[in-house]
Amino acid sequence: MRHVSRLIPRLGWIIALGIGVILPLLVSDFDLLDLSRVLTLAMAVAGLNLLVGHSGQVSVGHGAIFGLGGYAAMIPVVSFGWPWWAGVLLAAVLSLAFGILLGIPALKMGGANLGLLTIAVAVVFPLLLIRFQPLTGGTFGMFLPSPAISLPDSGFTSRQLEFWVCLLALAVVFVALRNLVHGRLGRALAAVRTSSLLAAANGIAVNRVKLIAFAVSSTVAGVAGALYALVVSIAVPDSYVFTFSIALLAASVIGGSRSWAGAIIGAAIIVYLPTLAEAFVGGQAAGNWSQFVYAAGLALCLIVAPSGIAGAVTSLLGRAFAYAPMRRAVVERSTDMRTTSTAP
Amino acid sequence: MTGTLLRIEGLTARYGTVQVLHGVDLEIGSDEIVALLGPNGAGKTTLLRALSRVVSSRGRMVFDGTDISSWSGARTATSGVGHVPEGRGTFVDLTVDENLRLGALARPRELKSTAGADLDMVYETFPVLQDMRRRTAGLLSGGQQQMLAVGRALMARPRLLLIDEPSLGLAPIVTRQLFDVLAQIRRRWSVSLLIAEQNARLSLEIADRAVVLAKGQVAVSGSAEELGYGDAVRRAYLGVANDEEGGKGAGR
Amino acid sequence: MTELLQQTLDGLSAGLIYGILALALSVVFQGTGMLNFAQGEMATLSAFVTLVFLQFGMPFWAVLPIVIVLSALGGALIERTVVRPLERSGELPLLTLGVALLLGINAMMAIIWGTNSRPFPSPFGQGVVTSLGLRMTYQQLGSLITLLAVLTVTILVFNRTSIGLRLRAVAQNPDSATLLGQHRGKWLMIGWGIAAAVGAFAALVAAPVLTLSPGMMTFPLLLALAAATLGGLTSRVGAVVGGLIVGVSNSLAGRYIPGLDGDLAIVVPFVITAIVVVIKPAGIFGKARTVRV
């Protein structure tokens, strides 16, 4: 029984990966661009999931870190002719450093202050981009004249290659985060999320554990941002405004902040919701309407489905199939966002 | 006893899946002091909280001729049932005076005008509070906070005052003083008292009657004299100490 | 010297706006334990509603009481409908709800009124007062007086009336307050209403200067968040003092620190806040709460 219930999700992931690998051969380049965007955004949302879903912290500034990664990759690639992977590496290093720099004071401050500090970062970041025009290109940003990821003689288009790169990166991130969450750090995080006081009493270095979670989350967001910018070939301050940070957070909660599949759902919503809204209300108002839908979805999820779409689907499936053990459903429910403290 | 003030029949209450009260029957007369005894986890606090309607329960609860079992906590509080909660429920950032005025807000409408006189009476009953009236309540000692809690509840002019573990965390001498005052307030404030207390000896001294709760049921009840000399009380305590399943998590 | 004083004066009058908004944040936080990121957007919505009334030709001072009452009702409605279900679910969901409200109200305003800035008439008229070499526009002076009045009334309501006593009691010890006949939900709702009404003033005095757009209060709110954190979220006085510190430091930094002119001056109040909070986590006037496990 238990084996089957473990095997099914794993099988699902393998099938999904298989589909992902052959997808670029079936889909138009135009659609591939959006799909690659979904993959990179899913990476960032997964990083946010580690924070929100697993360590009980909240960041309203991941959009800025995503942007930091984007610029960290674009600037050397565009201005200094670096290869794309070196840009991504630089993005990883910078966003890791940034995560640590931001995390240390935030954790010292404690409480809701991480939210406060990240919200400030989210607001200030686009202003800084405009201010440092010589480096960042100011309001007009950085523009990649030709695709960075290409193999001229391979017969594959850049869009196909980009998709595979993003897919690989996402798979690596998922596996790494999953192992992290199931390992020692994950258990420590679970303890901290349940009650940081009790965790501290049990010898867990609460602030260190939280800092690691924040730094990892930040690094993942930075790498994701780097790939995103390289894929869309442009980085402008307008892409990384405050509301984008909120959209990422919304995606994490709506998708399901404790589910890796939820990260993909959330990312897909970010990419396709504006397109969908445009089909209904047309051009100008589309952005506003999709923002409204995010907000409504976010509030609705918080109240009705705290474990997000993925969580809701899992528990529905669990109820539909006898094999899904009851235990799972109980754990799922008791570890969602609502549990912040439990009495011993 | 001049008449029945409160009568409860078959009261049951549960927290989630844990049933804490299993059909409690209890009567309290006007101007009567009843000691509610029992070990930790017997359901004393739950019984008091059910009476204040802040814990949902089943069973009949008739207070002063009215069935209150479907009332809200707020309504019960403003209709003559005062409650001094376990841990005193002090509003630590408010001054002593504000704590007491807060109590007065729960007075029945027709008694609003006499709040000032009652405030003086509280200060008369607990002179130490008078000296500290402008002080922030959080700065008071445990005993002073307990007095404040009783005074605050009295300001609502209750007919029935429920007091939960008044001796908790207090030095024996302070507890003694407190109970001496509790014995007096029934006459001065014409109020009945139901005191949930682990200190059986002290409670029996001031009570007319005692009810011993064990595993969520009334184990023994009788006059304070009877219970004071018999070993029924002791037996009820020991009986539960051997077998804990009835009361886990029932402390609050 | 005069310029320094002038900058300080400007900072103080802006700081009062942050302080008022921070006061609203503090009222909500003490009651519901929620950092209401949407307080600014709620205030902006009040300003938009005011503009609608003004366009019907009603005089400002007749519109004002209507809008304040509507704002209070709106705040109470938000508490009752979306905050109440999450009331006991902890800090993180509440924080996220604040974000959702911010996003939602912002989008709603953009859908209805568009994202372009609109002029908002000053109820105090055009003109400048000059004294001792310092100058203040009528608008600044009027705002100052209005906000001081709002501040005084709010503080009096909280400290001198039974409404305030109940609000404070429910915020501080809801269980004990219930036992004294205070209906927790009702008073939390009223708290939200008061916060929304107080916050509305901040937007109404800011709108003539900033011009009205859905994102108008994003920056002020951010500074108000810093102010409330700096002064202490659990203290109403702290919120206001925090607002003034934030306003002055923001104004001075923008003028005297090279490279921090314009929007970027916001960095300085945040650095100050961070430093203060690292030293005293509950803020200058805040009280540390003991945590019960």
Ordered list of secondary-structure elements with their pairings:
The complex is a heterotrimer of chains A (344), B (252) and C (293).
Chain A: H1 2-26, H2 29-54, H3 62-80, H4 84-109, H5 113-131, H6 133-136, E1 142-143, H7 158-182, H8 184-194, H9 196-201, H10 206-232, E2 234-235, H11 242-255, H12 260-281, H13 283-304, H14 308-320, H15 326-334
Antiparallel strand pairs in A: 1-2
Helix pairs in contact in A: 1-7, 2-7, 2-10, 2-11, 2-12, 3-4, 3-5, 3-10, 4-5, 4-10, 7-8, 7-10, 8-10, 11-12, 11-13, 11-14, 12-13, 14-15
Chain B: E1 4-15, E2 18-29, E3 33-37, H1 44-51, E4 57-63, E5 66-67, H2 73-77, E6 81-84, H3 96-104, H4 115-125, H5 127-131, H6 142-154, E7 160-164, H7 172-189, E8 192-196, H8 200-206, E9 209-214, E10 217-223, H9 224-229, H10 232-241
Parallel strand pairs in B: 3-8, 3-9, 6-7, 7-8
Antiparallel strand pairs in B: 1-2, 1-4, 4-5, 9-10
Helix pairs in contact in B: 3-6, 6-7
Chain C: H1 2-32, H2 39-55, H3 60-83, H4 91-113, E1 128-131, E2 134-137, H5 138-160, H6 162-172, H7 174-179, H8 184-210, H9 218-231, H10 236-256, H11 267-279
Antiparallel strand pairs in C: 1-2
Model description:
The complex is a heterotrimer of chains A (344), B (252) and C (293). Chain A is an all-alpha fold and 344 residues long. Chain A has a two-stranded antiparallel ribbon with strand order 1-2. Chain A has a domain at 2-241. In chain A, helix 3 (62-80) packs antiparallel against helix 4, helix 11 (242-255) crosses helix 13 (283-304) and helix 14 packs antiparallel against helix 15 (326-334). Chain A has helices spanning 2-26, 29-54, 62-80, 84-109, 113-131, 133-136, 158-182, 184-194, 196-201, 206-232, 242-255, 260-281, 283-304, 308-320, 326-334, and strands at 142-143, 234-235. Chain B is an alpha/beta fold and 252 residues long. A six-stranded mixed beta sheet of chain B has the order 6-7-8-3-9-10, with helices on both faces. In chain B, strand 4 (57-63) and strand 5 (66-67) form a beta hairpin. Chain B is globular and about 45 Å long. Residues 238-252 of chain B have low confidence and may be disordered. With 293 residues, chain C is mostly helical. In chain C, strands 1-2 form a two-stranded antiparallel ribbon. Chain C has one domain (2-216). In chain C, helix 1 (2-32) packs antiparallel against helix 10 (236-256). The model of chain C has no long low-confidence stretch (mean pLDDT 89). Chain C has helices at 2-32, 39-55, 60-83, 91-113, 138-160, 162-172, 174-179, 184-210, 218-231, 236-256, 267-279, and strands at 128-131, 134-137. Classes of the chains: A mainly alpha (344), B alpha/beta (252), C mainly alpha (293). Chains in contact: A-C, B-C. The interface between A and C is large, with 51 and 44 residues.
